[in-house]
Amino acid sequence: MQDMFTAGTDTSSTLLEWAMSELLRHPEALKKLQEEVRRFTQGRASVNDHNLDKMGYLKAVIKETLRLHPPVPLPLFRESTQDVKINGYGIAARTQVITNGWAIQRDPSFWEDPNECRPERFLNTAIDFRGQHFQLIPFGAGRGSCPGIQFATSGAEL
């Protein structure tokens, strides 16, 4: 149990470090985020859960940060159950296969300007951290995905 909390807090702190780095390098994104936070806090010192759910740009900044800087760049380890060919490469049964999440999340065939920080790409989309179509998999996908996704992202939002 302690390992799960440690992993979640490490992920949150690393996420915040990268988010601050990207926001400082992209002042226009920082300004949009500041405006959103100010709009929802309305002079109060803190954000509540009710307002947090409505902060779309904050969620987009978190997704974009995790797309560019995944906490685990090689998140998917699987073992083939039979001999298969993938893109012309033969993979024998019982071979360990590792998916490069970092490369997937910067794939120019899916992401426009994949190396640019553009949180807007996540506004008005259904792309989530579950990796349903393997375009955003900072926490892995399927049965092997990280069980602390919500813990790590919620901690960063607060």
TrEMBL record:
The entry's heme-binding residues are: 146
The question of whether Heme is a record keyword is answered with yes
What family is reported?
A: Belongs to the cytochrome P450 family.
Q: Does the keyword Secreted apply?
A: no
Q: Keywords in alphabetical order, please.
A: Heme, Iron, Metal-binding
Question: What protein name is recorded for this chain?
Answer: Costunolide synthase
Superkingdom of this entry's organism? Eukaryota
Please name the InterPro entries in this protein's record: Cyt_P450, Cyt_P450_E_grp-I, Cyt_P450_sf
What are the GO MF terms of this UniProt record?
heme binding; iron ion binding; monooxygenase activity; oxidoreductase activity, acting on paired donors, with incorporation or reduction of molecular oxygen
Per UniProt, what is one Pfam family of this protein? Answer: p450
Query: What organism is this sequence from?
Result: Opuntia streptacantha (Prickly pear cactus)
**What cofactor is this protein dependent on?**
heme
